[in-house]
Amino acid sequence: MSIPKLSSQDLEKARTAATLARRKRAELKEQVRLSNLSLAQALDTARDDEVLRLMKVADLLLAVPRVGERRAVLVMESLSIAPNRRVRGLGRLQIAGLKAEFGDR
């Protein structure tokens, strides 16, 4: 199975879609970073949006104020969340655990 050849229009369309997706994820993380959205609100927003559902949980946790690499890893391990897990792959107990851990932060 070979990789299909894309036209320049298809490539441009894919680049544009990827850029918009990155911007949308960056905007959500910025809202969390500025405390305009809590982690619970961000998770709810991300679960309803196909683009945001592809965001890694670790990236979202690192956007929470006063959460660094170490705390993010510890929380994810305690909730049995794989390091490469995306928001769409979270179970209801994992979501509940994240919301309980961070409250309205």
Summarize the topology:
Blueprint: H1 8-33, H2 39-47, H3 57-63, H4 69-78, H5 92-102
Structure in a nutshell:
With 105 residues, this protein is mostly helical. The chain has helices spanning 8-33, 39-47, 57-63, 69-78, 92-102.
Would you mind describing this structure in some detail?
The structure is a single chain. By secondary structure, this protein is an all-alpha fold. It has one domain (10-102): Helicase, Ruva Protein, domain 3, CATH 1.10.8.50. It has helices at 8-33, 39-47, 57-63, 69-78, 92-102. The chain is elongated. The mean pLDDT is 93.
**Helical content band:** 55-70%
Question: How many domains, as an integer?
Answer: 1
**Percent range for β-strand residues:** under 5%
Low-confidence stretches: none
CATH architectural designation: Orthogonal Bundle
Which structural class fits the helix and strand makeup?
A: mainly alpha
- From the 3D structure, determine the CATH topology: Helicase, Ruva Protein, domain 3
CATH class (first level) name: Mainly Alpha
Distance between the termini: 47 Å
Main beta sheet? none
Q: Count of helical segments? A: 5
Q: How many E strands? A: 0
Shape descriptor: elongated
| Topology order in helix (H) and strand (E) letters | HHHHH
Please tell me the overall pLDDT: 93
Using the CA coordinates, give the radius of gyration: 16 Å
